[in-house]
Amino acid sequence: MAALKKGKNASAQSKPGRSLALIVIAIVALTGGMFASGHTTPRLGIDLAGGTSITLRAVPEAGQESAINKTNMDTAVEIMERRVNGLGVQESEVQTQGDRNIIVNIPKGTNSEEAREQVGTTAKLYFRPVLTTELSGPAATGSPSPSATGGATDKATDKATDKATDKATDKGEASSSPSGSPSASATSQGRALTDALKADPSPSATATDGASPSASAPANDADGELQAQYAALDCTDEAARAKVGEGAKPSDSTLACGQNAQGQWQKYILGPAAVDGTDVDESEAVYNTQTAAGWTVTMKFTDGGAKKFADITGKLAQNQSPQNQFAIVLDNEVVSDPYVSQALTGGNAEISGNFDQEEAQGLANMLSYGALPLTFEEDSVTTVTAALGGEQLEAGLIAGAIGLALVILYLLVYYRGLSFIAIASLFVSAGLTYVIMSLLGPTIGFALNLPAVCGAIVAIGITADSFIVYFERVRDEIREGRTLRPAVERGWPRARRTILVSDFVSFLAAAVLFAVTVGKVQGFAFTLGLTTLLDVVVVFLFTKPLLTLMARRKFFASGHKWSGLDPKSLGAKPPLRRNRRPARPAGHVDPKEA
Q: What would you measure as the largest C-alpha separation in the chain, in angstroms?
């Protein structure tokens, strides 16, 4: 049994190179991945890189003060967060402040301005039937009706994609009508709404006539006052657009504005809301490779929404253009107005027709995340400059450097030559932390903020503590009279248990902190948890194997006074001798001596 145990120890001592080779391969692979990805530095959060902080205040509708409650505020935070992140803006922070304010922090980046516009678009989303529509402003003078030009049905998806809509075109293709008979040559190519479960080979064109009375005059469903307001409405006037639809209830007919594919402003009279944005379960931009439709937007409705959607599309399909269209309205602005050629009863629908990828994704994002339970007003907008963030980062790095220098100084004074192993382990841990943080930016959206820097500084102490636990266990074995190589192997099991328990407690604390907090504090918890896991990896795959190798070197094995393992300075006991002769009784004479 003793021989077997000795053989295991010898095997463990003879193969530390495998562990060192494994961690070297991991470091090389991660570093190569970092350079290959082009992200050689960690992404910085808003407090370090700069960005925009927006304060939104919940405003109750008339007689609905009770709507401002914790449930609705939490729902609004969740929707806003998904809406911003749906645009690819990472490390955005959305959290409540008080009982009616929401703070939105958007880091400086490619899509941050787009995200600010979408966060500011806080009204509810509605699907309303189109009663009438035409071009608005000077461009409308002498222009044919929208149904003849197709301008009203090829929409910009939102403010953020206005530029993209310039690329959209009206091809004027003809297609078959739902009944199967060929339609008239179509001069209007709008965006078609079809059943997503059916493979529609191409967007259907509305067979319309430029003289259609329903397109050139307001529908009878609108009262005289609304028709007068419609006639006077100029959607090219920003002030007029800001007031359009104010105070309109979902059950009322209303006016609205929107832009067509040519960038021209269009004005609408819309009927009562038939479907609420909350009835959309999910929406997605999809590239249809099986048909010529290209980029499309699919919608899946809730059970209640599917019934309402089937009812309204069944009614719209019986009308002529533009009364076979419905408008997707957000913040009293029409973001899309597809037409319907048949009732859609499956609870799924698809909007198709000359979308590019950016337009399709923008509209899908609006449909998925556009329905907020409350209306918000922008109270304040604060811009955090990168200069201020740079100063904070510099102060954090200086604090980290001072902490690291003090730890190294302590190791040098107390452990002498043994401190070489500890310092090397610290630098390996720091290198792994840097590379992994750089890779986590593009992969999961991790961004380094000031609390995260604090977490990395705290981790220096946690990592150094693991080395100290192991070194002291080895020293205890030497004090018991053992030589260095057996002391390294015998001290490891006890040190390993202590290190694992300590790191488990630290990781558990970081995980709980991450789960129960929001915002920047999560950055601290995430970094602390990450560095705690790396501490275990470094101690097992680098520190222990390196000490095993160093124990074979004469400088350490002989107990040199500068090695930090000198038996005399440690107060070691003399080695125990197991083969001493037993004491002889008094008067006993050894025959050999006689």
A: 142
